[in-house]
Specification:
The complex is a heterodimer of chains A (about 375) and B (about 220).
Chain A lengths: L20 H7 L4 H14 L6 H11 L4 E6 L5 H6 L7 H7 L2 E5 L7 H14 L5 E5 L2 E2 L8 E2 L2 E2 H10 L3 E5 H6 L12 E2 L1 H4 L5 E4 L6 H14 L12 H4 L10 H6 L9 H4 L18 H4 L46 H24 L14
Chain B lengths: L6 E4 L3 H25 L12 H29 L15 H14 L14 H25 L7 H13 L1 H33 L3 H7 L1 E4 L6
Antiparallel strand pairs in B: 1-2
Helix pairs in contact in B: 1-2, 2-4, 4-5, 4-6, 5-6
The chains are: A alpha/beta (about 375), B mainly alpha (about 220).
């Protein structure tokens, strides 16, 4: 595979590829059957017909190694962790190995100026050809001094890298929309990559952390069809964010039936009832958690008995909070002033006001209008 | 007390009265079901029950009924009689309307003692109704925008999805709740004022929305 590489590859690049992916997989102890299963899963994740399974396998076998750089800014490295999770090497990981990952702070061997020189080489040598993956938000306040790499601000570096990339994949909510660092009062002025670099072509893969299957599927989509997947108005691929969690939730029958968890650990909670009253944000969150789940399809919050936090929605944390309530708090009315408390106060005030008015009116004598001045 | 004999005048046409009462019914039903959607009660005894399902079904069906009623009333404001006309709802844009508006306001604030009698909508009420219709539109738009999220590839989401992009779906939910409370505030005001003016004007204010007739001292000009 490496000899087919036509875009120039820095010497320091990670894995050496000898032969086809299928052969590589065999060396790693992954059977052909597992690889085909993976390709079918990817076809399903991308909502492609089953016939695409073999086509994906073929495309992955014949693909030329595109260069990928992984930038990390204001993040907790949770998305990298999600990808490199401690289990036996998965097919997905190996498929990611098809990419020439030339720069990734957490996993690269090079450090300091050497590493930055690698990145510069990609930016110059492969302009418009490489894929940039961004993890973490970018601070804009005070000229971006709150996050610097190699003496340069995150926004400066991101503009250079993402501006020159074929496409940028924002992994995780922070890179997509600012996420936790952007939560009020947002001391660093954190924003997502699209806001920081408006000229970049960005696919957002929000989630806390990103679901690795969605990242792999996005990359497979790109390798297979040589274009980025269709997205919604928030830049999220429709194959992964086209449906609400609520509409595909395993607890949905309990919602429709009217069976709710009323308190943590109550009978309903033990029976697996709907978590709606515990502040679950499934009804307002678009993500494929119920079908894809996390950690090799092991589990996800609602399956584990906790409501959805709404982590893949824009302006998570502020808009999707409080975690255990259905409605957001109303700004300017102090903590815990919900819309309905304010409304109740408003209606109470109106009732008292008009009651007093009525009493005053009852006590006073009115004047009949003159016949000439009256309307009818 | 007016001791004069009064003439009967047909003010509220049938579509106006129908819209009024459909709105009343819808607002009550939508509020009750809306409450149960926002703060559900565990009514289900088994997973094969459908209590929340039915509550939501009623909420959405009545939402359509309400929308049709509100839109019909807006259409009727262009074809109905002068008391139903759209111009009636913006008295502040005419000199005469403003004059009557402030007269009404002075009466309400217990400054003037002379009852400002009106035949159709009094200008203060008409202004409140135009605001109320703004709340209706907000309720309809936010409601259907939230409803459309069940089918993000549907026509309704294509038409209203921009609202979720603009203020987020949680923001829309907040507006939907707050607007309901504003409508409740209006309802208290509305029932009180109807009661008050029924007593003060002796023109059958309350019964007029059932029968369509009000009573005036002067005979209608033919």
């Amino acid at each position: 595979m490496a000899k087919d590489h036509d875009v120039g590859c820095p010497e320091e690049a990670g894995v050496e590829f000898k032969g086809k992916v299928s052969e590589l997989l065999e060396q790693r102890g992954v059977s052909r059957r597992d690889f085909m299963k993976f390709c079918s899963t990817m076809a399903a994740a991308l909502a492609l017909p089953p016939a695409f399974g073999p086509k994906i396998a073929q495309a992955l076998d014949e693909v030329k190694r595109p260069t990928l750089v992984w930038l990390e800014f204001q993040s907790c490295t949770g998305d990298t962790e999600a990808l490199l999770r401690a289990s036996a090497p998965t097919v997905a990981e190996i498929v990611l190995d098809i990419l020439s990952i030339d720069y990734a702070e957490t996993i690269m061997a090079a450090a300091g100026h050497l590493a930055e020189a690698n990145l510069d080489q990609v930016i110059k040598g492969e302009k418009g050809k490489y894929i940039a993956v961004v993890e973490g938000s970018i601070p804009l306040k005070d000229d971006g001094v709150y996050c610097c790499i190699g003496g340069r601000s995150a926004v400066d570096r991101a503009t250079e890298v993402c501006g020159g990339a074929f496409a940028t994949i924002a992994v995780g909510t922070c890179a997509s929309y600012g996420g936790i660092p952007a939560a009020s009062p947002n001391p660093t002025g954190a924003v997502g990559i699209k806001k920081a670099v408006p000229s970049a072509t960005v696919v957002n893969l929000p989630g806390c952390p990103v679901n690795t299957d969605n990242l792999t599927a996005t990359i497979v989509h790109f390798l297979l069809l040589k274009k980025l997947p269709a997205t919604d108005s928030f830049g999220r691929p429709l194959f992964a964010y086209g449906k609400r969690i609520h509409d595909n939730c395993e607890r949905r029958p309990h919602f429709d039936a009217g069976q709710y968890v009323e308190a943590w650990g109550d009978q309903g909670h033990r029976h697996g009832y709907c978590l709606y009253k515990m502040g679950c944000k499934g009804p307002q969150t678009f993500h494929n958690c119920p079908s894809e789940r996390y950690n090799e399809h092991t589990s996800w919050p609602v399956a584990a008995g906790h409501g959805c936090a709404g982590c893949s929605q824009p302006n998570f944390w502020d808009d999707m909070g409080p975690l255990y309530r259905r409605l957001p708090n109303v700004a300017g009315f102090g903590i815990e002033a919900t819309a309905d408390k304010i409304g109740l106060g408003l209606v109470g005030a109106a009732a008292v006001g008009f009651g007093i008015h009525g009493a005053l009116n009852a006590m006073r004598k009115d004047k009949e209008p003159e016949d000439s001045s009256r309307e009818g | 007390m007016s001791s004069q004999c009064k003439f009967k005048r047909y003010i509220w046409e049938l579509p106006v009265r129908w819209c009024h009462w459909i709105n009343v019914l819808s607002i009550v039903t939508l509020s009750v079901t809306g409450f149960l959607i926002g703060y559900p009660i565990s009514l289900g005894h088994s997973a094969s029950d459908f209590t929340m399902g039915w509550i939501r079904f009623i909420h959405f069906s009545v939402a359509y009924l309400f929308t049709v009623s509100v839109l019909s009333r807006i259409v009727w404001s262009f074809i109905g009689n002068q008391y139903a006309g759209w111009m009636e709802f913006f008295p502040l844009f005419s000199g005469k309307g403003r004059q009557k508006f402030f007269k009404m306001l002075r009466y309400y604030f217990l400054i003037d003692k002379e009852v400002p009698e009106t035949i159709g909508h009094n200008p203060l009420a008409a202004t409140a109704y135009s605001l109320l219709f703004c709340f209706y539109i907000i309720m309809i738009l936010t409601g259907f925008a939230l409803y459309s999220e069940h089918a993000p590839f549907g026509a309704m989401h294509a038409a209203l999805g921009w609202l979720t992009t603009l203020v987020s779906n949680q923001g829309l939910r907040l507006i939907h709740h707050l607007s309901m409370w504003c409508i409740f505030g209006f309802v208290i005001n509305h029932i009180y004022s109807a009661w008050l003016m029924d007593i003060k004007e002796h023109g059958a204010e309350i019964s007029s929305i059932f029968s369509g007739f009000r009573f005036t001292v002067h005979k209608e000009e033919e």
